[in-house]
Write a structure and sequence with these properties.
The chain has 431 residues and is α/β, with parallel strands linked by helices. It is 46% helix and 16% strand. The structure holds nicotinamide-adenine-dinucleotide (NAD), L-histidinol and zinc ion. This is Histidinol dehydrogenase.
Length: 431
Protein backbone atom coordinates (compact mmCIF):
# COMPACT_ATOMS: atom_id res chain seq x y z
CA UNK A 1 0.00 0.00 0.00
CA UNK A 2 1.33 3.47 -0.88
CA UNK A 3 0.94 5.45 2.34
CA UNK A 4 1.33 9.10 1.31
CA UNK A 5 2.56 10.42 4.65
CA UNK A 6 5.36 7.84 4.77
CA UNK A 7 6.82 8.88 1.42
CA UNK A 8 9.49 11.51 0.86
CA UNK A 9 8.65 14.44 -1.43
CA UNK A 10 10.69 12.77 -4.19
CA UNK A 11 8.84 9.47 -3.72
CA UNK A 12 5.49 11.28 -3.79
CA UNK A 13 6.48 12.99 -7.02
CA UNK A 14 7.60 9.69 -8.56
CA UNK A 15 4.35 8.00 -7.55
CA UNK A 16 2.35 10.66 -9.40
CA UNK A 17 4.54 10.61 -12.53
CA UNK A 18 2.71 10.02 -15.78
CA UNK A 19 3.57 6.89 -17.78
CA UNK A 20 6.94 7.35 -19.48
CA UNK A 21 6.61 9.26 -22.71
CA UNK A 22 8.38 7.97 -25.80
CA UNK A 23 11.78 9.38 -26.62
CA UNK A 24 10.60 12.83 -27.74
CA UNK A 25 13.45 13.53 -30.16
CA UNK A 26 12.94 10.22 -31.99
CA UNK A 27 9.20 10.88 -32.08
CA UNK A 28 9.75 14.40 -33.39
CA UNK A 29 12.02 13.16 -36.19
CA UNK A 30 9.50 10.51 -37.23
CA UNK A 31 6.58 12.94 -37.20
CA UNK A 32 8.59 15.57 -39.09
CA UNK A 33 9.23 13.05 -41.88
CA UNK A 34 5.48 12.37 -42.10
CA UNK A 35 4.72 16.11 -42.22
CA UNK A 36 7.32 16.71 -44.94
CA UNK A 37 5.97 13.81 -47.00
CA UNK A 38 2.45 15.26 -46.86
CA UNK A 39 3.76 18.71 -47.82
CA UNK A 40 5.45 17.13 -50.83
CA UNK A 41 2.95 14.51 -51.98
CA UNK A 42 -0.37 15.81 -50.62
CA UNK A 43 -3.34 13.45 -50.96
CA UNK A 44 -1.16 10.61 -52.22
CA UNK A 45 0.87 10.70 -49.00
CA UNK A 46 -2.33 10.47 -46.95
CA UNK A 47 -3.50 7.44 -48.93
CA UNK A 48 -0.08 5.80 -48.48
CA UNK A 49 -0.12 6.44 -44.72
CA UNK A 50 -3.67 5.07 -44.53
CA UNK A 51 -2.32 1.83 -45.96
CA UNK A 52 0.83 1.79 -43.86
CA UNK A 53 -0.63 2.62 -40.43
CA UNK A 54 -4.28 1.64 -40.64
CA UNK A 55 -4.21 -1.09 -43.28
CA UNK A 56 -6.79 0.95 -45.16
CA UNK A 57 -6.44 0.28 -48.91
CA UNK A 58 -9.30 2.54 -49.99
CA UNK A 59 -8.53 5.18 -52.62
CA UNK A 60 -11.28 7.37 -51.21
CA UNK A 61 -10.06 10.13 -48.89
CA UNK A 62 -13.08 12.40 -48.60
CA UNK A 63 -16.50 11.12 -47.55
CA UNK A 64 -19.10 12.19 -50.13
CA UNK A 65 -21.80 14.51 -48.77
CA UNK A 66 -24.57 12.04 -49.61
CA UNK A 67 -22.97 9.46 -47.26
CA UNK A 68 -23.16 12.02 -44.46
CA UNK A 69 -26.72 12.98 -45.39
CA UNK A 70 -27.89 9.36 -45.51
CA UNK A 71 -26.29 8.38 -42.18
CA UNK A 72 -29.51 8.50 -40.08
CA UNK A 73 -30.85 5.51 -42.03
CA UNK A 74 -27.86 3.43 -40.89
CA UNK A 75 -28.44 3.96 -37.18
CA UNK A 76 -30.84 2.42 -34.70
CA UNK A 77 -33.42 4.80 -33.25
CA UNK A 78 -31.81 4.25 -29.87
CA UNK A 79 -28.34 5.37 -31.00
CA UNK A 80 -29.73 8.28 -33.03
CA UNK A 81 -31.64 9.49 -29.97
CA UNK A 82 -28.55 9.09 -27.79
CA UNK A 83 -26.50 11.22 -30.19
CA UNK A 84 -29.24 13.84 -30.32
CA UNK A 85 -29.55 14.06 -26.51
CA UNK A 86 -25.79 14.52 -26.22
CA UNK A 87 -25.74 17.06 -29.07
CA UNK A 88 -28.55 19.07 -27.43
CA UNK A 89 -26.93 19.08 -23.98
CA UNK A 90 -23.51 20.00 -25.35
CA UNK A 91 -25.16 22.76 -27.37
CA UNK A 92 -27.03 24.08 -24.32
CA UNK A 93 -23.93 24.17 -22.13
CA UNK A 94 -21.74 25.83 -24.73
CA UNK A 95 -24.38 28.17 -26.14
CA UNK A 96 -24.35 29.89 -22.76
CA UNK A 97 -20.71 30.77 -23.51
CA UNK A 98 -21.52 32.72 -26.71
CA UNK A 99 -19.57 35.96 -26.37
CA UNK A 100 -21.09 39.44 -26.75
CA UNK A 101 -19.24 42.61 -27.65
CA UNK A 102 -18.19 44.52 -24.55
CA UNK A 103 -18.22 48.31 -24.80
CA UNK A 104 -16.45 50.32 -22.09
CA UNK A 105 -16.11 54.11 -21.92
CA UNK A 106 -12.77 54.21 -20.12
CA UNK A 107 -13.05 57.98 -19.67
CA UNK A 108 -15.47 60.51 -21.16
CA UNK A 109 -15.33 60.41 -24.96
CA UNK A 110 -13.03 57.36 -25.07
CA UNK A 111 -15.00 54.32 -26.19
CA UNK A 112 -13.26 50.91 -26.23
CA UNK A 113 -14.82 47.68 -27.50
CA UNK A 114 -13.83 44.05 -27.22
CA UNK A 115 -15.27 42.15 -30.18
CA UNK A 116 -15.25 38.45 -31.01
CA UNK A 117 -14.61 36.90 -34.40
CA UNK A 118 -15.23 33.22 -35.13
CA UNK A 119 -12.16 31.45 -36.47
CA UNK A 120 -13.19 30.94 -40.09
CA UNK A 121 -11.72 27.51 -40.87
CA UNK A 122 -11.28 24.90 -38.16
CA UNK A 123 -9.90 21.37 -38.26
CA UNK A 124 -11.19 18.77 -35.84
CA UNK A 125 -9.29 15.56 -35.15
CA UNK A 126 -11.26 12.59 -33.89
CA UNK A 127 -9.08 9.72 -32.67
CA UNK A 128 -9.83 6.31 -34.15
CA UNK A 129 -6.76 4.16 -33.52
CA UNK A 130 -8.53 1.67 -31.30
CA UNK A 131 -12.13 2.91 -31.06
CA UNK A 132 -14.31 5.20 -33.19
CA UNK A 133 -15.31 8.21 -31.07
CA UNK A 134 -18.51 9.89 -32.29
CA UNK A 135 -18.63 11.65 -28.91
CA UNK A 136 -15.38 13.46 -29.82
CA UNK A 137 -17.07 14.68 -33.02
CA UNK A 138 -19.86 16.20 -30.92
CA UNK A 139 -17.48 17.68 -28.33
CA UNK A 140 -15.70 19.68 -31.01
CA UNK A 141 -18.16 19.97 -33.89
CA UNK A 142 -20.97 21.40 -31.78
CA UNK A 143 -18.70 24.25 -30.72
CA UNK A 144 -17.49 24.86 -34.27
CA UNK A 145 -21.10 25.08 -35.41
CA UNK A 146 -22.11 27.40 -32.56
CA UNK A 147 -19.18 29.70 -33.33
CA UNK A 148 -20.31 30.17 -36.92
CA UNK A 149 -17.08 28.82 -38.48
CA UNK A 150 -17.45 28.70 -42.26
CA UNK A 151 -15.22 25.69 -42.86
CA UNK A 152 -15.34 22.71 -40.49
CA UNK A 153 -12.92 19.97 -41.51
CA UNK A 154 -13.16 16.68 -39.63
CA UNK A 155 -10.43 14.03 -39.83
CA UNK A 156 -10.54 10.53 -38.43
CA UNK A 157 -8.77 7.26 -39.33
CA UNK A 158 -10.63 4.23 -40.63
CA UNK A 159 -9.21 0.80 -39.87
CA UNK A 160 -8.70 -1.79 -42.59
CA UNK A 161 -11.57 -2.18 -45.03
CA UNK A 162 -14.18 -1.00 -42.54
CA UNK A 163 -16.70 1.64 -43.60
CA UNK A 164 -16.61 4.86 -41.66
CA UNK A 165 -18.66 4.51 -38.50
CA UNK A 166 -22.24 5.74 -39.18
CA UNK A 167 -22.45 7.34 -35.72
CA UNK A 168 -19.47 9.51 -36.69
CA UNK A 169 -21.25 10.44 -39.92
CA UNK A 170 -24.45 11.36 -38.09
CA UNK A 171 -22.61 13.43 -35.48
CA UNK A 172 -20.78 15.18 -38.34
CA UNK A 173 -24.12 15.88 -40.02
CA UNK A 174 -25.57 17.45 -36.85
CA UNK A 175 -22.48 19.64 -36.48
CA UNK A 176 -22.47 20.85 -40.09
CA UNK A 177 -19.05 19.42 -40.97
CA UNK A 178 -18.06 20.69 -44.42
CA UNK A 179 -15.25 18.21 -45.25
CA UNK A 180 -14.82 14.76 -43.71
CA UNK A 181 -11.44 13.11 -44.28
CA UNK A 182 -10.85 9.42 -43.73
CA UNK A 183 -7.28 9.60 -42.49
CA UNK A 184 -5.57 9.76 -39.13
CA UNK A 185 -2.35 10.52 -37.31
CA UNK A 186 0.36 13.06 -38.05
CA UNK A 187 -0.29 12.96 -41.81
CA UNK A 188 -3.77 14.37 -41.66
CA UNK A 189 -2.74 17.00 -39.11
CA UNK A 190 -0.17 18.18 -41.67
CA UNK A 191 -2.79 18.08 -44.42
CA UNK A 192 -5.12 20.35 -42.44
CA UNK A 193 -2.24 22.70 -41.58
CA UNK A 194 -0.80 23.07 -45.09
CA UNK A 195 -3.76 22.02 -47.28
CA UNK A 196 -3.75 19.44 -50.08
CA UNK A 197 -5.83 19.11 -53.27
CA UNK A 198 -8.66 17.56 -51.24
CA UNK A 199 -8.08 18.89 -47.75
CA UNK A 200 -8.73 22.58 -47.10
CA UNK A 201 -6.08 24.41 -45.07
CA UNK A 202 -7.53 25.48 -41.73
CA UNK A 203 -6.65 28.24 -39.25
CA UNK A 204 -6.82 26.18 -36.07
CA UNK A 205 -6.54 22.46 -35.35
CA UNK A 206 -8.40 20.90 -32.44
CA UNK A 207 -8.63 17.48 -30.90
CA UNK A 208 -7.12 14.77 -28.78
CA UNK A 209 -4.98 11.98 -30.13
CA UNK A 210 -2.01 9.73 -29.57
CA UNK A 211 1.61 10.86 -29.33
CA UNK A 212 1.99 11.17 -33.14
CA UNK A 213 -1.06 13.42 -33.36
CA UNK A 214 0.00 15.53 -30.39
CA UNK A 215 3.55 15.97 -31.70
CA UNK A 216 2.26 16.82 -35.19
CA UNK A 217 -0.02 19.50 -33.78
CA UNK A 218 2.91 21.06 -31.93
CA UNK A 219 5.16 20.99 -35.00
CA UNK A 220 2.65 22.40 -37.49
CA UNK A 221 1.79 25.20 -35.07
CA UNK A 222 5.42 26.31 -35.47
CA UNK A 223 5.78 25.56 -39.17
CA UNK A 224 2.52 26.39 -40.94
CA UNK A 225 1.68 30.04 -41.45
CA UNK A 226 -1.40 31.23 -39.59
CA UNK A 227 -2.19 27.90 -37.91
CA UNK A 228 -2.93 27.63 -34.20
CA UNK A 229 -3.74 24.59 -32.06
CA UNK A 230 -5.96 24.05 -29.05
CA UNK A 231 -4.03 22.23 -26.30
CA UNK A 232 -2.03 19.09 -25.52
CA UNK A 233 -4.85 16.54 -25.03
CA UNK A 234 -3.15 13.18 -24.71
CA UNK A 235 -3.79 9.85 -22.99
CA UNK A 236 -6.85 9.83 -20.74
CA UNK A 237 -6.46 10.18 -16.97
CA UNK A 238 -8.72 10.17 -13.95
CA UNK A 239 -8.11 10.69 -10.25
CA UNK A 240 -10.80 9.43 -7.89
CA UNK A 241 -11.03 10.61 -4.29
CA UNK A 242 -13.15 8.23 -2.23
CA UNK A 243 -13.88 8.15 1.50
CA UNK A 244 -14.99 5.28 3.74
CA UNK A 245 -18.63 5.78 2.66
CA UNK A 246 -17.90 5.47 -1.05
CA UNK A 247 -19.14 2.47 -3.01
CA UNK A 248 -16.12 0.41 -4.17
CA UNK A 249 -18.15 -0.97 -7.08
CA UNK A 250 -18.69 2.57 -8.39
CA UNK A 251 -15.07 3.56 -7.75
CA UNK A 252 -13.74 0.51 -9.59
CA UNK A 253 -16.08 1.13 -12.53
CA UNK A 254 -14.93 4.75 -12.81
CA UNK A 255 -11.26 3.80 -12.73
CA UNK A 256 -11.78 1.12 -15.39
CA UNK A 257 -13.77 3.51 -17.59
CA UNK A 258 -10.59 5.48 -18.25
CA UNK A 259 -8.15 2.60 -18.03
CA UNK A 260 -9.87 1.06 -21.07
CA UNK A 261 -8.99 4.05 -23.28
CA UNK A 262 -5.39 3.09 -23.88
CA UNK A 263 -2.39 1.30 -22.45
CA UNK A 264 -0.90 4.68 -21.62
CA UNK A 265 -3.99 5.88 -19.73
CA UNK A 266 -3.51 6.49 -16.02
CA UNK A 267 -6.07 6.09 -13.24
CA UNK A 268 -5.33 7.16 -9.67
CA UNK A 269 -7.26 6.31 -6.51
CA UNK A 270 -6.73 8.41 -3.39
CA UNK A 271 -8.56 7.43 -0.22
CA UNK A 272 -8.39 7.87 3.52
CA UNK A 273 -9.71 4.33 3.98
CA UNK A 274 -7.56 1.25 3.48
CA UNK A 275 -10.59 -1.05 3.40
CA UNK A 276 -12.11 0.98 0.55
CA UNK A 277 -8.86 0.69 -1.43
CA UNK A 278 -8.70 -3.07 -0.94
CA UNK A 279 -12.36 -3.58 -1.81
CA UNK A 280 -11.93 -1.43 -4.93
CA UNK A 281 -9.01 -3.62 -6.03
CA UNK A 282 -11.19 -6.74 -5.63
CA UNK A 283 -13.99 -5.06 -7.58
CA UNK A 284 -11.59 -4.09 -10.35
CA UNK A 285 -10.55 -7.74 -10.74
CA UNK A 286 -14.18 -8.81 -10.89
CA UNK A 287 -15.26 -6.13 -13.37
CA UNK A 288 -12.15 -6.51 -15.55
CA UNK A 289 -13.09 -10.03 -16.54
CA UNK A 290 -16.28 -8.72 -18.17
CA UNK A 291 -14.61 -6.04 -20.29
CA UNK A 292 -13.95 -6.40 -24.02
CA UNK A 293 -10.88 -4.17 -23.65
CA UNK A 294 -9.57 -6.03 -20.60
CA UNK A 295 -6.00 -6.32 -21.93
CA UNK A 296 -5.73 -2.56 -22.56
CA UNK A 297 -7.18 -1.70 -19.14
CA UNK A 298 -4.85 -4.16 -17.40
CA UNK A 299 -1.81 -2.52 -18.98
CA UNK A 300 -3.05 0.95 -17.98
CA UNK A 301 -3.54 -0.26 -14.40
CA UNK A 302 0.18 -1.00 -14.24
CA UNK A 303 0.74 2.79 -14.58
CA UNK A 304 -1.82 3.57 -11.91
CA UNK A 305 -1.11 4.27 -8.23
CA UNK A 306 -3.56 3.66 -5.39
CA UNK A 307 -2.74 5.95 -2.49
CA UNK A 308 -3.72 5.91 1.18
CA UNK A 309 -3.88 9.36 2.79
CA UNK A 310 -4.62 10.31 6.39
CA UNK A 311 -7.48 12.68 5.56
CA UNK A 312 -9.59 14.04 2.72
CA UNK A 313 -7.70 17.33 3.15
CA UNK A 314 -4.51 15.43 2.20
CA UNK A 315 -6.34 13.85 -0.75
CA UNK A 316 -7.19 17.34 -2.00
CA UNK A 317 -3.48 18.26 -1.83
CA UNK A 318 -2.55 15.13 -3.79
CA UNK A 319 -5.08 16.01 -6.51
CA UNK A 320 -3.90 19.62 -6.70
CA UNK A 321 -0.31 18.40 -7.07
CA UNK A 322 -1.21 15.85 -9.79
CA UNK A 323 -3.50 18.14 -11.84
CA UNK A 324 -5.80 15.45 -13.25
CA UNK A 325 -7.62 15.64 -16.56
CA UNK A 326 -10.69 14.29 -14.72
CA UNK A 327 -11.35 14.40 -10.98
CA UNK A 328 -14.13 12.35 -9.39
CA UNK A 329 -15.00 13.15 -5.77
CA UNK A 330 -16.94 10.43 -3.98
CA UNK A 331 -16.84 11.67 -0.40
CA UNK A 332 -19.73 12.37 1.98
CA UNK A 333 -18.91 16.10 1.89
CA UNK A 334 -18.19 16.23 -1.86
CA UNK A 335 -20.29 19.31 -2.63
CA UNK A 336 -18.69 21.25 0.24
CA UNK A 337 -15.09 20.77 -0.89
CA UNK A 338 -15.42 21.59 -4.60
CA UNK A 339 -13.82 25.02 -4.12
CA UNK A 340 -10.68 23.54 -2.59
CA UNK A 341 -9.56 21.94 -5.85
CA UNK A 342 -7.54 23.55 -8.59
CA UNK A 343 -5.53 22.24 -11.58
CA UNK A 344 -8.48 20.11 -12.75
CA UNK A 345 -9.71 19.62 -16.33
CA UNK A 346 -13.23 18.52 -15.43
CA UNK A 347 -14.70 17.60 -12.06
CA UNK A 348 -17.38 15.02 -11.19
CA UNK A 349 -18.99 15.56 -7.80
CA UNK A 350 -20.83 12.91 -5.77
CA UNK A 351 -21.48 9.18 -5.96
CA UNK A 352 -23.89 9.45 -8.89
CA UNK A 353 -21.69 11.58 -11.15
CA UNK A 354 -19.56 9.14 -13.17
CA UNK A 355 -17.02 10.47 -15.62
CA UNK A 356 -18.88 8.71 -18.43
CA UNK A 357 -21.57 11.39 -18.05
CA UNK A 358 -19.13 14.10 -19.09
CA UNK A 359 -17.49 11.88 -21.68
CA UNK A 360 -20.76 11.59 -23.55
CA UNK A 361 -23.82 13.50 -22.63
CA UNK A 362 -24.11 15.81 -19.62
CA UNK A 363 -23.09 18.81 -21.71
CA UNK A 364 -19.57 19.62 -20.48
CA UNK A 365 -16.64 19.06 -22.83
CA UNK A 366 -14.46 15.95 -22.82
CA UNK A 367 -11.55 17.48 -24.69
CA UNK A 368 -9.34 18.32 -21.75
CA UNK A 369 -5.70 19.02 -20.95
CA UNK A 370 -3.72 15.99 -19.77
CA UNK A 371 -0.21 15.39 -18.43
CA UNK A 372 -0.62 18.07 -15.76
CA UNK A 373 -1.31 20.80 -18.33
CA UNK A 374 -4.50 21.56 -16.38
CA UNK A 375 -2.25 23.99 -14.48
CA UNK A 376 -2.33 26.30 -17.48
CA UNK A 377 -4.72 25.01 -20.16
CA UNK A 378 -8.52 25.04 -19.97
CA UNK A 379 -11.20 22.52 -20.81
CA UNK A 380 -12.21 23.02 -24.44
CA UNK A 381 -14.80 25.80 -24.53
CA UNK A 382 -16.52 28.02 -27.04
CA UNK A 383 -13.95 30.81 -26.71
CA UNK A 384 -11.38 28.48 -28.26
CA UNK A 385 -13.29 28.88 -31.53
CA UNK A 386 -13.11 32.67 -31.45
CA UNK A 387 -10.46 35.31 -31.51
CA UNK A 388 -10.91 38.71 -29.95
CA UNK A 389 -9.99 42.10 -31.30
CA UNK A 390 -10.51 45.64 -30.10
CA UNK A 391 -12.15 48.70 -31.61
CA UNK A 392 -11.87 52.24 -30.27
CA UNK A 393 -13.63 55.50 -31.09
CA UNK A 394 -12.53 58.77 -29.49
CA UNK A 395 -14.31 62.10 -29.62
CA UNK A 396 -12.52 65.46 -30.04
CA UNK A 397 -12.97 66.33 -26.36
CA UNK A 398 -12.08 62.76 -25.37
CA UNK A 399 -8.74 63.09 -27.19
CA UNK A 400 -8.08 66.44 -25.53
CA UNK A 401 -8.39 64.79 -22.12
CA UNK A 402 -6.50 61.63 -23.07
CA UNK A 403 -3.62 63.78 -24.33
CA UNK A 404 -2.68 64.26 -20.66
CA UNK A 405 -1.58 60.63 -20.68
CA UNK A 406 -0.45 60.12 -24.30
CA UNK A 407 1.83 63.16 -24.66
CA UNK A 408 3.99 62.71 -21.53
CA UNK A 409 4.29 58.96 -22.21
CA UNK A 410 5.31 59.53 -25.84
CA UNK A 411 7.85 62.07 -24.66
CA UNK A 412 9.18 59.64 -22.03
CA UNK A 413 9.69 57.05 -24.77
CA UNK A 414 11.27 59.61 -27.09
CA UNK A 415 8.69 58.91 -29.81
CA UNK A 416 7.95 62.37 -31.23
CA UNK A 417 5.82 61.18 -34.12
CA UNK A 418 3.48 59.45 -31.68
CA UNK A 419 3.06 62.73 -29.79
CA UNK A 420 2.59 64.67 -33.04
CA UNK A 421 -0.32 62.44 -34.09
CA UNK A 422 -2.15 63.82 -31.06
CA UNK A 423 -0.90 67.40 -30.83
CA UNK A 424 -1.52 68.11 -34.54
CA UNK A 425 -5.17 67.23 -34.00
CA UNK A 426 -5.47 69.34 -30.86
CA UNK A 427 -3.93 72.33 -32.68
CA UNK A 428 -6.24 71.83 -35.69
CA UNK A 429 -9.27 71.72 -33.40
CA UNK A 430 -7.89 74.66 -31.38
CA UNK A 431 -8.11 72.64 -28.16
N1 LIG B 1 -7.58 14.16 -23.65
C1 LIG B 1 -8.72 14.00 -24.30
O1 LIG B 1 -9.55 14.89 -24.32
C2 LIG B 1 -8.97 12.70 -25.05
C3 LIG B 1 -10.24 12.42 -25.62
C4 LIG B 1 -10.39 11.22 -26.35
C5 LIG B 1 -9.28 10.36 -26.52
N2 LIG B 1 -8.11 10.68 -25.93
C6 LIG B 1 -6.89 9.88 -26.11
O2 LIG B 1 -6.56 9.90 -27.50
C7 LIG B 1 -5.74 8.79 -27.80
C8 LIG B 1 -6.22 8.14 -29.10
O3 LIG B 1 -5.19 7.36 -29.63
P1 LIG B 1 -5.40 6.27 -30.75
O4 LIG B 1 -4.06 5.70 -31.06
O5 LIG B 1 -6.50 5.37 -30.36
O6 LIG B 1 -5.95 7.04 -32.02
P2 LIG B 1 -5.37 8.22 -32.91
O7 LIG B 1 -6.44 8.47 -33.93
O8 LIG B 1 -4.90 9.34 -32.09
O9 LIG B 1 -4.10 7.62 -33.67
C9 LIG B 1 -4.19 6.72 -34.72
C10 LIG B 1 -3.23 7.14 -35.81
O10 LIG B 1 -1.90 7.13 -35.31
C11 LIG B 1 -1.01 6.96 -36.40
N3 LIG B 1 0.00 5.94 -36.10
C12 LIG B 1 -0.22 4.73 -35.54
N4 LIG B 1 0.94 4.06 -35.46
C13 LIG B 1 1.91 4.85 -35.99
C14 LIG B 1 3.31 4.72 -36.18
N5 LIG B 1 3.96 3.62 -35.80
N6 LIG B 1 3.98 5.76 -36.73
C15 LIG B 1 3.34 6.88 -37.11
N7 LIG B 1 2.00 7.05 -36.95
C16 LIG B 1 1.30 6.05 -36.39
C17 LIG B 1 -1.82 6.50 -37.58
O11 LIG B 1 -1.85 7.51 -38.54
C18 LIG B 1 -3.20 6.23 -37.01
O12 LIG B 1 -4.22 6.57 -37.93
C19 LIG B 1 -5.81 7.87 -26.58
O13 LIG B 1 -4.59 8.01 -25.87
C20 LIG B 1 -6.99 8.43 -25.77
O14 LIG B 1 -6.83 8.21 -24.40
C21 LIG B 1 -7.93 11.83 -25.24
N1 LIG C 1 -12.46 10.11 -21.63
C1 LIG C 1 -12.02 10.63 -22.92
C2 LIG C 1 -11.22 11.89 -22.66
O1 LIG C 1 -10.13 11.65 -21.87
C3 LIG C 1 -13.15 10.95 -23.85
C4 LIG C 1 -14.02 9.83 -24.30
C5 LIG C 1 -14.53 9.60 -25.53
N2 LIG C 1 -15.31 8.50 -25.46
C6 LIG C 1 -15.28 8.08 -24.23
N3 LIG C 1 -14.50 8.86 -23.52
ZN1 LIG D 1 -13.60 8.27 -21.69
Amino acid sequence: MNVWSQLSAAQQKALLARPAQQDQSALQARVQTIIDTVKENGDKALLDFNQQFDNNQSEQLIVPQNEIDNSPALLSTELKTAIEIAFNNITKFHQAQLPVTKTIETQPGVCCELRYQPIQAVGIYVPGGTAPLPSSVLMQGTLAKLSGAKTIVLATPVKGDMAINPAILYAAKLCGVTTLIKSGGAGVIAAMAFGTDSVPKVNKIFGPGNSYVTMAKQLVAQQATGVAIDMPAGPSEVLVIADEGANPTFVAADLLSQAEHGEDSQVVLVSNCETLINETKREIDAQLSTLSRKAIAQKALLNSPFILVDSIESAIKVSNQYGPEHLIVQTRNAADIVDKFYNVGSMFVGDYTPESAGDYASGTNHVLPTYGYSQVYSALNLMDFFRTYTVQTISQSGLAQLANSILPLAEAEGLDAHANAVSIRLQEAKL
